[in-house]
Amino acid sequence: MSSDTCYFNVVINMKLKKINFIFILIILFISRLDTKTLLMDNFNTGEKKNKFGGGTGGFAGGGALCKDRFIYDPTILFGKRGYSLKLKYDVTAVNSYCGYYSKLNFIDLSDYNYLSFWVRGDVGGEFFKIEIKNSSGDANRKVAKSYINDYLDGGVTTQWQKVVIPLDTFGALDGWTNMNEFVIVFENYQSSVNNSPLYGNIYIDNIVFGSWSPGYVRFDHFGDNVGINGFGGNMGDYDGGNGSASHYMTNINLFTGGFPLTMVSRYNIVTAFVGNSFIFGGGTTGWIEIPHNLSAY
């Protein structure tokens, strides 16, 4: 083969690689054409009002405390400019709770399929749940919840981390066209059983709803020591005859993914059957079974 022929082959191959690379870029670009994001709040105005015009603020019950304010300390805030939200909480009182709400002003979120935000803590390990509420007439379908560790492996740290939660996680809601509130809740009991700080500070920024599909929902990876799974329902035990079943969390025999806890299912089958049950949805009591549409997965 002549040197001219070799050169020709190299040139053709390089051009084909360039064409393939351009083709891949075009596909990636097209795949994102139908994606969009809706910023709920980045707190840069310094006003207690989100981008939907809804009011924001703190709440507390049972002797708890929660104060919300905006910070511009460049050593803490996200993005090194503007403001970030600081939540100072104290749930040391038994059975107390507190948190932060942001009114959604009945916005239609049916074109979006994930929620994301950035979070960090002062000491790490801070524990809270995220609630989304709509204006349903059914009390069991107007609020859905998920705990932070369900979608943040290892939990909150002292570094900024992005949390991405598929909206299908909140399948207990009966619709997304008439949305009411986004809520962050700290609880004495749930923080206590997780050995999480009962008081401290967390920082939140860039709360966004988006239309790109994360491609998965997480049912439960037992990253926290609570019975509530990723879909908001409780976990229980049952027996179908003469036997028994129970469960508990342990930090022994962990899965290699590095999650902090594993569930142990303990059973004794004499006759019939026994087992553990996981509720989808949960409703107001945590035990209301609510169908979830997961046909996209």
Explain how this protein is built.
With 297 residues, the protein is mainly beta. The protein has helices spanning 3-31, 188-193; strands spanning 37-41, 56-61, 65-71, 84-90, 97-103, 114-121, 129-134, 143-147, 161-166, 179-187, 199-210, 232-239, 243-250, 262-269, 274-282, 288-289. The chain has 2 helices and 16 strands. The longest helix has 29 residues, at 3-31. The model is unreliable at 2-12 and 23-33 (pLDDT under 50).
Sheet with most strands? 6 strands, antiparallel
Q: What's the total number of strands?
A: 16
Proportion in helices: 10-25%
The backbone outline, from C-alpha atoms, is: globular
Which blocks of ≥5 consecutive residues have pLDDT under 50?
Answer: 2-12, 23-33
Radius of gyration: 24 Å
Strand share of the residues?
A: 35-45%
Distance between the termini: 53 Å
H/E element order = HEEEEEEEEEEHEEEEEE
Q: Determine the number of helices (DSSP H or I, runs of at least 4 residues).
A: 2
The chain-level structural class is mainly beta
Nearest-integer average pLDDT = 88
List the SSEs and their pairings.
Blueprint: H1 3-31, E1 37-41, E2 56-61, E3 65-71, E4 84-90, E5 97-103, E6 114-121, E7 129-134, E8 143-147, E9 161-166, E10 179-187, H2 188-193, E11 199-210, E12 232-239, E13 243-250, E14 262-269, E15 274-282, E16 288-289
Short description:
The protein has 297 residues and is mainly β.
